[in-house]
């Protein structure tokens, strides 16, 4: 019965739209502009004048007049200002806490131990792209107070796809440039800062904890147990790290990683600006996804810097410096949105000619560019690390199941936010 009612409503809506369109066509041309001269936004405004559409608006507003969801209240509290203010607040949220957490990290942390956290972040990023960014890019944000209609402008969609590809290829170029700069050696640590393949000449966690047996001079061994066993291990560890000289190429890799991390954070800032100017919901969900991604990102970079010869304090300070790149990217994104034109404002002025004759402005290209960078970070830059396996099949199977579960949880959180907000 419900299906029949739904089909009847759709048929009635189609009839009403056809009537509206016929009425528009039947109007003398000197009184009504030719439809080809109208933007998508103006055409949608014309559709809103149909009586049946207005009735749908009343019904939709009544259905959404209930109490505000808890998620919406949290987002309203965290982001109470204009799109520019909210973008700056979001940048502070994604840059501050993850860097402060580095003070709690041991200097001998192994980035490979972060695989479950990385999988969780991948789920969050890919969930944000598929549940929020891509629908917003091609379909627009839902309006809780009125029915929206998707009007297709083919060249507009093509340009949006081009922007997604440009964002993806930009990170490919950044990653490739870093590999060329390091001569193909050093960490496989692209611009996303996730993949950490250790060189044999870098003291890993296993290397720094495995202390040599006593020699003729009576060096303390790891086997010196008893009540002072942990102190002996710490002393031996401190003595062993300086004894292993770090090669110049590894030191260079650490500094190049800082440059790549700074550049990557600029794209995070651009994502904050683009998402909040698209809609408050998209901005909030993108902030959550990037925050999940930043924690293993920053911890992995911290471990890389320590292995490259940085002290703990210097590594933490360097990470705070790279965080300034996110604020720079946010400011650039705000400037593009404020001064680069806006398709909605162009439509209000009756302007049609935007980028290559479409209704797009430069500001409209930031969100698809962001989606392209997230696709790279969530796939090419991270998946190879999750695909690495060891010789123990049963242990690797358990680890894989855990990673998939973490990935599902990350994507599930994005899905839940999208479904209930």
From TrEMBL:
TM region positions: 84-104, 116-138, 158-174, 314-336, 365-388, 400-419
Membrane association type: Multi-pass membrane protein
GO biological process, one term: intracellular zinc ion homeostasis
Predominant subcellular localization, coarse grouping: membrane
InterPro entries: ZIP
Signal peptide range: 1-23
Gene Ontology CC terms: membrane
Organismal lineage: Eukaryota, Fungi, Dikarya, Ascomycota, Pezizomycotina
Residue ranges with Basic and acidic residues bias: 186-201
Keywords: Membrane, Signal, Transmembrane, Transmembrane helix
Residue segments, region Disordered: 184-227
Entry annotated with the keyword DNA damage: no
MF terms (GO), sorted A to Z: zinc ion transmembrane transporter activity
A family per Pfam: Zip
Transferase as UniProt keyword: no
Subcellular localization(s) per the UniProt record: Membrane
Protein name, UniProt field: Zinc/iron permease
